[in-house]
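cache lookup: miss for this entity combination. No prior model stored, computing from scratch. Input as submitted by user K.M.:
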Amino acid sequence: MINFDYLRVTTPKAAVDAIVTNRNAQWIAGGTNLIDLMKKGVVEPQKLVDITNLPLKEIKKTSNKFSIGAMALNSDVADNELVQKEYPLLSLALKAGASQQLRNMATVGGNMMQRTRCPYFYNIDMPCNKRQPGSGCGALKGFNRMHAIFGASDKCIAVHPSDMCVALVTLDATVVVTGPKGERRIPFQDFHRLPGELPQKDNTLERGELITAVELPDQPFKKNVHYLKIRDRSSYAFALVSVAVAIDMQNGKMNQVRLGMGGVAHKPWRLKEAENFLTGKAPSEPVFREAAKLAMRGAKGYGHNNFKLKLGPNTIVEALIKATATS
Amino acid sequence: MSHQKTHEENHPDKGRRDFIKQSSLLTALALAPPALMKAADPGWEAEAPRLLEQPLNIEINGISRKLSVEPRVTLLDLLREQLALTGTKKGCDHGQCGACTVHVDGKRVLSCLSLAVMQEGKKVTTIEGVGTPDNLHPMQAAFIKHDGFQCGYCTPGQVMSGIACIREGHADSDDDIREYMSGNICRCGAYPNIVKAIAEVKKGGKSL
């Protein structure tokens, strides 16, 4: 690893200032992705600004919303009693990601900022528009088994690797950020972006904007939730396809439905058409199958990942069956 | 020779040319008498300048240490290369195998993806801190009893993870143990015996 300068900060303002005044500086939190990328030479910051000591670890409930500090550890959020009670889907998704060692290091903000695990992005001898704009996409006609089936462009077909983010987009979370121009709130749906012509940009943050918290609105999704992650081994692997389901059942009907998908796009993917179709209906496999068909509209395979076109709808149906089985 | 020249004309390779120029210069310098060397100062320092080392106060296996480290040094390299605590193993060095698992402030983490300088004021426990050959930790004894290893390379990480697994309350069933030990890979495939060892220590009910 190339050497770099190191600075420890204790206030969000100092963190922002340190980044704004040095173009080659970068924040580090858990480091589980960044250190790996630095060892591989994918990113080479001249200065790391350690933000793990910022007072942003609190998980708290106020009158009408729930707030999780950006520096809260993935394991602490997953095991938090309030989270398990109020937002069980988030806890399930977190536990489906990485290993306990990594969850003990990774933060909520860092999880959102992690880069794709596309092998062409990771290998500096390969073309990759995300790492080196203009160099081409190695995955487009290469080994693309793990890659996107929704919203990709001919510049990039990488997927966002997070499980936590699939739950957060499904639960209509809001991202709170602070930056040189002050604080703002970004709907989770708009936080990550599709590659389009700028695959080097993973999200809609401006330079110097620091995630301080994630907020969740009050919700009825306490019981009929499920996170189904399909992967090459039964634990500790990235998703081929994952599906997050949250349903509010009333008198045997699906009163409110939230559906999200991971491992299929450059951002955590929300399935609104399928949600609308399911809302108000009684749960049954034919209904789920129809919803899955709607969800897969516009999906496109790139060769090695064509299997996702079939695995995707099957995973949606299975996750819906599991979520509605608990009465 | 003429072939090579054509090749270079077609594909000007600046990096390689610079390298050849520099290495010829270095050879010349090595052969030159000292007086000449001063005159032919190439303008770069013989030794790359070291970025400022950072002070680091850290407690390792109960011993407080005042150290100085380059920011790029991982906790794993600090333990192995600077402190000769080679019980913690370097497997993949990319956070995929768990061989480097240690406890920091009571939580199991991967030392290969942790920067040493970020552990300021923290308490680290490595495999050297949990037991000795004469006084094995119950988890170490259980690994021996159940043959929880073959080559032994992943074992320090497995033992550190196994202890944490019980402390966290994630060892209530074999399935639970398998799930929460999934970050520790064993290429010899001693998994069934590792699960047995952890389940037995858990059943023993001793506080670890």
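stored under new cache key. Strands of chain B lie at 54-60, 63-69, 101-104, 107-110, 123-125.
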